[in-house]
Amino acid sequence: MPRARVVLNVIDDSDDEDADVLPSAAAKKKTSALLSSSSSSSYSNVHTATSSSQYEPRPVALPDERLLRIAREAADSLLQWDDIRGHADGPGGWKTLDTTPSAFFSVATRRDSRRFAVRASGLVPCSVAELRRLVHTSDSAAHVQQLRALFQTEFRGGAVAYTTALEGQKLAVKTATFEHHGWWRAKPIEWCYVDAIMDTERAFDKVSTSLQPRDVFAGRSHDRVRFVKHIVTGYRVRADPQAPRQTDVCFYGELVMPRQLGIPLPRMPHAASDSAMKARLLDMARRCDRLTVLVRRRRLGVQVLADRTRLALSLANAPCVHCGHTQLLAKQCRLCGHAVCDACSDKHERERFVRDHLRVHFVRVCSPCLKRVDRALFDSVETPRAPQIVPDAATAKTPSALLAEAFHQALSQALTEAKKSAIGRVLRRVLGLPNRNGDSSAGGDVDNDVAVAMLDEHLDFPVLSADECALANDLGRAYPLASVATEDPDVLMAYPIPEDEARRTAAIQRCRVREIGHSDELSLICELATQQFGFMITMVAIADRLEAHVVACSVPVFEGMTMPRQDAFCSHTVMSELPLLVLHPEADVRFHRISAVQQHGTRFYCGFPLVADDGSVLGSLCCLDHKTRELAVSEFTILKRFAATASKLLQLNARHA
Questions:
Q1: At what angle do helices 290-302 and 367-375 cross, to 10 degrees?
Q2: What residue spans define the domains of the chain?
Q3: How far, in Å, CA of 590 to CA of 496, rounded?
Q4: What is the pLDDT of residue 80?
Q5: What is the pTM of this model?
Q6: Which of 103, 230, 281, 325 fits as disulfide partner to 253, beta carbons 3.0 to 4.6 Å?
Q7: 54-297: CATH, from 3.40.30.10, 3.30.530.20, 3.40.50.970, 2.40.10.480
Q8: Which H, E and C letters describe 613-631, residue by residue?
Q9: Are 54-297 and 399-655 the same fold in CATH?
Q10: What is the dihedral of CA 122, 374, 298, 103, to 10 degrees?
Q11: Distance (Å, rounded) from C-alpha 165 to C-alpha 250?
């Protein structure tokens, strides 16, 4: 995949501007310059112990064993967490600062003639796994993104220069350059350090220890800088036993100031002053308050926002959906899409990768929607990104090869003549061939030899173009989320209603979905999709007026099952004629409470619309999995053809009613 670009500016989603506007020309020019300079410098170089060949220069002077020893010595000798957390305030102890800007973290300092230490402790409303992904990175793009999110304009650049694993311990050599606001024309300060993370059950420790600048060859800044030395920092992160959705975080940083006979040693050339390094440590402690903001920023990035351009006209003189307060021009919650007032909503940062470009902006979200977001599960979310169909790998099979493989396997496993006949009928419909009697609308049995001959002669599927791989809700949602009478975030959200609901339900009645009973052809389509692509389950589901009905399924026990419409994925799939791809349904406010997620562990959903003769969407070919995954173009091509075949079978059922 292409390297992700990091957009460095923050866009303010003000109420009189479109949230999805592009950065200004000046901002884009500045961003492009920063990105081009970063990509052309050693900041972008990342070396791993496994990828380095004998002809490549090693990016660090120290051997892996020495790096591991430095990290372990720092963790064992300096990061004594019981002493750090238990040392009382007062003379000789911690001094709590009164200038802490937030109630989430308390910041304290401790100093003597040789050491200066800083501590920040507090609670972050998230899981340990979620916070680990936020504070620990292993590639340069994520490293830059993380530090820029934490330190904002103070951060100038950095890189992951080297990664390795030794004795079960993952190590990374990193660099980071920060602004130094000292006297006029103060030079930036650069920190070269080894980063290690130690995982335990529902907890982790992270330690970062300074390295000599001369020992790091890659990832360095080309600017004239001052070097940070003799600094050790660490995070101790533990699940809060009192609250399952909160994490106890303690940050500790220490600067060792070398002395001989009580006299400070001369500062090395180009080294940062003690005051500059103390200021940097104190700023790192105070920035721990940003962790809570960044957790919510990533969570909002998983959500699909309402499209302002399509829903703005309904906001004029609209009362707040929560308190009923009427405004001349109401504000809009970008999550549910309804009119809200200032008292019931607030602006929050949001980050999301769209086509491998990071976009950070502000969005207005109402309080009930925010509660729903915080009740979702985000442990498995690596990066908040818009869904997209990824290009095929160079070694990937073509759609024709995939389909041939699926049907050959099905034919070899078919034990009954009825099964073989169903395979032949589905194969004819997938290929768009008339039956042997010349009537494409009638059934027709096909024996094994004829089916194999059809595969060899007629199977030639072109790969869909990028325009043909469009997805619903990839960049925005054209409909609001239905408001509910209760603001309880654990209650199922009401389902949205399409504009053509009356025509759609009439088409469902014509198809006699409930009278179909078992369909060998529809069941075979579900089985082929599950076996070929490894889904947990595939089903043909119809979203009727009040219920969703499972017409066919790769797991026979679910066939014929009904569920409330708000408890089904396809209630949102029918809102568009395009396929719906949900990478993390457990983190999406639309789906995180439905039974498939809560009881069956669904972590991936892709639904392909099933359409009637008049073009209305009846339901979807639903593909579910127990872990998130990417969908390649060839896979998308086959699944879209399977959905078209299932649609044809439903339409034929209506014609023969």
A1: 90
A2: 54-297, 305-375, 399-655
A3: 10
A4: 81
A5: 0.86
A6: 281
A7: 3.30.530.20
A8: CCCCEEEEEEEEECCCCCC
A9: no
A10: -30
A11: 26
210 beta partners: 193
Angle at 487 between CA 481 and CA 489, to 5 degrees: 80
CATH class for the domain made up of 399-655: alpha beta
- Give the span between the Cα atoms of 650 and 606, in whole angstroms: 20
**What DSSP string describes 405-470?**
HHHHHHHHH--SHHHHHHHHHHHHHHHTPPPTTS-TTS-----HHHHHHHHHHH--PPPPPSGGG-
pLDDT the model gives residue 40: 39
Beta bridge partners of 326: 319
Radius of gyration from C-alpha coordinates of the chain = 29
Q: Which amino acid is at 454?
A: M
How far is Cα 357 from Cα 390, in angstroms, rounded to an integer? Answer: 15
d(CA 161, CA 213): 12
Q: Specify the residue for token string 């911690």.
A: 94
Residues 55 and 579: their CA atoms lie apart, in Å, by 48
Distance CA 80, CA 77 (A): 7
Closest to 492 (Cα-Cα) out of 582, 575, 573, 597: 597
**Residue 24's pLDDT is what?**
45
475: DSSP letter: S
CA distances from 5 to 72, 145, 638, 639 (A): 34, 10, 31, 31
Q: Which two tokens stand for residue 37?
A: 């300079």
* Close Cβ partners of 156 (under 8 Å, ≥ 6 residues apart): 177, 178, 179, 188, 221, 223
| 104, 122 Cβ separation under 8 angstroms | yes
pLDDT < 50: residue spans in the chain: 1-14, 16-42, 44, 52-53, 437-443
Give the CA distances from residue 106 to residues 109, 134, 289, 421, in Å, rounded to whole numbers and listed in that order: 10, 20, 9, 71
pLDDT for res 161: 92
Please tell me what DSSP assigns to residue 306. B
Mention every residue, 6+ apart, whose C-beta is less than 8 A from residue 548. Answer: 541, 542, 562, 563, 564, 565, 567, 568, 570, 571, 619
**Strands 105-111 and 115-124, how do they pair?**
antiparallel
Determine the 3-state secondary structure of 640 from DSSP.
helix
Q: How far apart are CA 155 and CA 188, in angstroms?
A: 10
Total residue length of the chain: 657
DSSP, res 555: S
Provide CB contacts within 8 A for 496, sequence distance 6+.
Answer: 479, 480, 481, 482, 571, 572, 575
Q: How far apart are CA 257 and CA 170, in angstroms?
A: 29
Query: Rounded to whole angstroms, how far apart are CA atoms 649 and 443?
Result: 10
**168: buried, middle or exposed (CB in 10 Å: 19+, 13-18, 0-12)?**
exposed
pLDDT of residue 99: 60
Here the tokens at position 632 are: 């390649």
> Dmax of the chain from CA atoms?
103
Distances (CA, A) of 64 to 162, 171, 375, 399: 10, 9, 42, 45
Going by the DSSP 8-state scheme, the letter that residue 267 receives in this structure is P
Q: What letter represents residue 139's amino acid?
A: D
Structural tokens at position 20: 């999805």
Residue with tokens 């569920």: 563
Crossing angle of the two packed helices 417-431 and 633-655, in degrees rounded to 10: 110
